[in-house]
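Write out this protein's structure.
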Amino acid sequence: MAHAVVIGAGIGGLTAAVALEREGWTVTVFEQAASIEPVGSGLAVAPNALRALDTIGVGDQVRELSAIQGEAGIRRPDGRWISRTSAEDARARYGDPTVLLLRSTLVDLLSARLSPGALRLDSRVESVDAGSGRVTTSGGTVGADLVVAADGIRSPVRKALFPHHPDPVYAGVTSWRVVVPAAGPVRASETWGRGLVFGVMPLADDQVYCYATAVVPADQVNGDEKAELVRLFRRWHEPIPALLAAADPGAVLRHDIYSMDTPLPAFHRGKVALLGDAAHSMTPHLGQGACQAIEDAVVLAHHVGEAHHAGRTSHAGSGGGDHLTAGLAAYTEARRDRTTRIVRRSRAIGRLTLWTNPLAVFARDGAMSLAGKLGPNVAFRQFDEVFNWRPPA
């Protein structure tokens, strides 16, 4: 049986591991952390990613454990709506609305689907030989027919495969994330100000996921990140000040946002495939970072699964390597152009949130408000290419 090594037990890596096992591969997942700690952030799973999760039998569980993004939209700091959409409109157009859940909930669902012993925690990958598939870890060396590098924005594997390719670049904003208890009903929204954004996502079990961005230099750190959020957003509309007041200071996460502005020439080399942020890190402004990693995972498993089956049925077992090479090339072909377009579109939307000039912000908000008044079809049209994606049959 063919053996795949997956590097990284994030959402993309775990989805790939589950999908590959369903295609008949033996899978080992190496995760450098000693445990999969609960991450204090929420996740929006859009219709395209739900379809991908359906292919590995997880979609319905995600729907059951999620809150539905009902009426949502963009607001001004004083609370006035710029544009609004509804879950009913999204379901009618795409077959599913966007659903909201804790990132840790999806991680738990995926890891529970793996075969016993497949997940190896506290295992740092030190090197990968793309030609042979040999993976050296802190615990020894293993051979693999396929290596899936889902090792994040700073991917050491990507750097080794494409040493001269430009690194992801700082997008000009830092982000904060925190999950807080809800004191009452909260409506999903994203509020845009002058160089500032604050998002509110109601989750199941009376929790709310809050996220924010601000235009600041890279690598800037505050002693008290909650206090910084309160300083930036204390005069914005409710429930933002109340949610921040309820936040645990120790639970506030802060990360600078990076984007892979120069696309890789390929998402594979030798026996190694890159996936998720390792292949195409993007800003969060389309809410597609995790969703595209999920798409990557099921598409990769589909193409290398076909290669695996073709290699097994070839004469005398020959040609397996050629079939895998073709499968990885098909993966790059299916994913590179799509993710490049989404990276660029997300980056373009992100640039609108960087504006601080009052006249430019007034014009931006006016244009979005006008588009919103033209009906949900206009608001959704920019998402059609993203949300209408279907996984390979």
